[in-house]
Write a structure and sequence with these properties.
Oligomer: single chain
Order of helices and strands: HEEEEEEEHEEEEEEEEEEEEEEEEEEE
Structural class: mainly beta
Largest sheet: 4 strands, antiparallel
Radius of gyration: 20 Å
Shape: globular
């Protein structure tokens, strides 16, 4: 049995067990040229403040309970923005960082119990993390001192064995977020290798779920009974390059976002054992002309939203929540990297698309947006991704 057929058979035998009790949702999609471009008439006015500038490809940002913001840059380095506005470097040993193309120091998230442990996690390319002794991708656990001056590795790696395209660094993933049950979710890229997304013996092109303390596959993962231990951490497969992960308030549903090839950036509703239909073997080693979701794959999970043609290059995602956001409360925000800005989607509890529009105050003025992230203080934080030391960390709040 070939790899592609074996993966499909596994999906049929395993079935789809839904994450956090959520349903598979709607298969609603919408072309980019049909999207509403105007915000609702009752949209709140937004204020945008620059908290830090002179950054180079800041990838992710997370807010600590004391209000401090911790961000990382793809080429290496951590920066803390303290509650009083002080911007300072957080010293860390990154001598093994492998930064090439789209891969480098990428996903970052603080532990839900950060106050007790001062623990956070990164997903990054490392020079010696591959099976052959070459580069690979690893998730590492760190602690940071109370003064936000230095970070120390405490689990190195927490999760290893995530492959990377050693030639180009293309499609390296690698978003980190926690689900409602406190388990660590890891989005990975397919490394621009056609067979990876449908192959359960590799962690490339997958959504993973692990225990954040041990790095071991989470209890209840869908492929624990398979012989190959690599598959045990996998939640969903058939992904191209998972760039965004967000948990919907109220439902605890997990959504992922990934950039399309020639068409169809996607937002997907995560399901245990779900196959999201990316199978770029086609007529070549990596055929990007095939659909993002191949409907000929039995049980392929349709996207809840897709861009159609043209793509807009979506990246990080986050849900807005809180009465202060008025009519924006509950929106899923997507960073946009092709025509720049932030796209807002309103999704029903079952995952069906209700409306979409661009956020006017963020349209075009700040360039490419890598990561929108709602802070614990209810404000929205954005990292831009324009390069050459021109990038910024932005704070967005609803006006009075």
């Amino acid at each position: 049995m070939n790899t592609r057929r074996a993966a499909r058979s596994t999906a049929l035998l395993t079935g789809l067990v839904l994450l956090a009790g959520c349903s598979a949702g709607s298969s609603a999609t919408s072309d980019a040229d049909e999207a509403a471009t105007a915000a609702p008439s009752d949209a709140p006015a937004l204020q945008v403040e620059v908290l830090a500038d002179g950054l180079d490809h800041p990838w992710d940002v997370s807010q600590a309970p004391d209000g401090t913001l911790l961000l990382d840059e793809r080429g290496g380095g951590f920066t803390a923005v303290l509650p009083d506005g002080t911007v300072q470097t957080v010293a860390a040993d990154l001598d093994d960082l492998w930064a090439e193309g789209e891969t480098g120091l990428m996903g970052l998230v603080l532990d839900p119990d950060f106050d007790a442990q001062r623990r956070f996690y990164t997903c990054m390319g490392v020079a010696d993390g591959g099976a052959d002794g070459g580069p690979g991708i690893e998730v590492t656990a760190w602690t940071v001192d109370e003064g936000w001056t230095s970070a120390t590795r405490v689990a190195d790696p927490l999760v290893g064995g995530i492959p990377v395209n050693a030639d180009s660094g293309r499609h390296g993933g690698c978003r980190l977020r926690f689900d409602a049950g406190g388990q660590l979710l890891i989005g990975t890229g397919d490394n621009a290798r056609g067979t990876n997304p449908q192959d359960l013996s590799t962690l490339a092109g997958k959504l993973l779920r692990v225990d954040p303390q041990t790095g071991q596959p989470s209890a209840g993962n869908p492929f624990l009974e398979l012989t190959d231990p690599t598959s045990h951490a996998i939640v969903g497969y058939g992904h191209r390059n998972v760039q965004g992960i967000a948990v919907q308030p109220g439902t605890d549903a997990v959504y992922t976002a990934e950039q399309g090839s020639q068409v169809d950036d996607e937002v997907n509703l995560a399901t245990d054992g779900g196959n999201y239909g990316w199978d770029p073997v086609g007529s070549g080693e990596y055929d990007e002309s095939v659909p993002m979701t191949d409907t000929e794959i039995p049980g392929a999970v349709p996207a809840v939203w897709s861009s159609g043609d043209p793509t807009i290059a979506v990246s990080g995602i986050t849900f807005l929540t809180g009465e202060q956001w008025g009519s924006y409360d509950g929106l899923l925000l997507l960073g946009v990297q092709k025509d720049t800005g932030v796209l807002a989607l309103r999704l029903a509890d079952d995952g069906s698309l209700v409306e979409q529009f661009r956020i006017p105050e963020l349209e075009g003025d700040y360039g490419r947006v890598r990561s929108p992230q709602l802070g614990g203080d209810g404000a929205l934080y954005l990292t831009t991704d324009n390069g050459d030391g021109t990038d910024q960390l932005l704070r967005v709040t609803p006006g009075s």
